[in-house]
Prior knowledge:
Elements: E1 3-10, H1 20-35, E2 38-39, E3 45-48, H2 56-59, H3 62-71, E4 80-83, H4 86-89, H5 94-106, E5 110-113, E6 118-120, H6 122-125, H7 131-168, E7 180-183, E8 186-189, H8 191-206, H9 210-218, H10 244-251, E9 263-264, E10 271-272, H11 287-301, E11 320-322, E12 329-333, E13 342-346, H12 347-350, E14 361-362, H13 363-374, H14 387-418, H15 422-454, H16 458-471, H17 477-494, E15 497-501, E16 505-511, E17 527-532, E18 540-544, H18 551-558, E19 563-567, E20 571-575
Helix pairs in contact: 5-7, 8-11, 9-10, 11-15, 14-15, 16-17
Amino acid sequence: MKTAYAYLRFSTPEQLLGDSARRQTNRTTEWCEKNGVHLDETLSFQDLGVSAYEGKHFEEGALGVFFDFVKNGKIERGSYLVIEALDRFSREKPLAAASRLFDLVKLGITVVTVEDGIEYSEATLGSSDSSAMLLLVIKLSQAHAESVRKSERVGPAWQKKKDLARSEGIPLTSRCPEWLELRDGQFHLRDERVKIVQRIFEETIEGFGRRAIVTRLNGGPTPVAPFKAGQKWKNPNRAGGWQTSSVARILNNRAVLGEYQPHTGKAGNRVPYGEPIADYYPKVIDEAIFWRAQSTMQERRHQSAGRRGDRGAHLLRGLARCSDCRSPMHIVNKGPPPKGGIYLSCSANRRNIGCENNRSWRVDGLEEALLLVLTSFKTQSFLPDKNKPDRYVDEIDGMKGELAELESRAGNLLGMVERGDKRAETRYLELSGEIEERKVTIERAEKELGIRRSDPGDEARLAEVLKLSTDIFDLEGAERLEARTRLSTLMRRMVKLIECDPDRGSYAVLSIDTKVWRVEFPTEGAFAYQIDASPGAAPRLLFLLAKNPSADARDAFFRNKGGYVFSPEGKKTFFPEKPK
């Protein structure tokens, strides 16, 4: 018995929710049963939501895979490829589409269209009867012409809709973000979903990564249903619940700010059409919240990643570096306390790749010392630089002025280009490249400005550290995890890094910049610090992460360069630099 393979295709994702897939499948099964051909269901060839107009389903789709299987012998000569109609096979220009089908037929495959029962094979296309060949060319031509007509008819209509959306805010279609719905020609909030969106942004700012947010949404006593719950999926075995990709799409979607970005082109080749339309949708996230979430995500990308378990990460995650080789310090679990504990060790030393820093530091001791230091600062210690946002605004305004000048110069050349002036054409292309580069630079600068303006500042962070450092010892379970996660995020914003030096010890580095800082006397123990003013470098504050350091630990840290010790007795002791 000969074997047949089914191929299903339709152009838009919306058709997945309709009858197209079921209809194509049933007609294929009926043809195989009627003609005594075995339908192989172990191999599935489906291009769902893929257009056949430009051959994408051949280049990177399932039909291209079918070709490969035929060429390498996984699918034998004499087999059938069963499709509903020729427009499922291709909507390319007739010459290109016919060439693809001929290639398949020459490999010994018979292509069957079940809508009319016609078989295209070496026998039918190579015989003296040219009717099959003529019918093939006519149908492929009709398929391509239909796609062209749709494009010509739909294109201008969509253009008009986009222009009305931009000028009058009229909705293009009923499709909209999942937290909205279109009723009576207007977008309305779906309140419960808006709360979920706001929760995702809040938890991101608190320091939870996408994986942790997904776990919290899917777990707990009342799991949160995902926006697409109950939808039919391409893969019927797909697991339900929230996915990290769903959370990422929400966090990066400027529709939460009310923006709509029109696009042009087909799926896979869509490009923005014009500037975003502001206030097209109801706004569900404040701009400051949006930018704080972007800043937090950007910061997480520059810190260490990985799973951190139910107890959460240690507070110093992503901050500690070996002073000798600059490699990250990794966690080492030496068993349960009091003899064991969680330690930080140089990752390069542990892998035996050249670093000799074999010293380890107990994490809970470092955490306690860093909290002692930070909670000893007055909340007015970190005064924001109020001139920075204005400076960025001035720089962006300057870049926009330069952009306008470049666009004006390009416009002046356009007439000469249209008249065929080759030198003008060369210069016009150069200016076009400069214009695009300048637009990208402005976009990046505006994003940075948005992040800076949304930053509440170190003063607010320090106040939150003071509160969390008190609460963290009274909380348990999920509440303690939340507090530690938030505290870790705050620390990474205030502490530049932690250097682990085998001789000097482990110390936190804070940049002074232009900030005014004041320290109150600690109440829980003494700590040592030093102002590092190396030639040619910005001054830094170095805090030894050792509570009540011994004289030997203090001297090793100071390295004869002098420093200070604050103690609970109200003493600030200065240790002068020792002569060499």
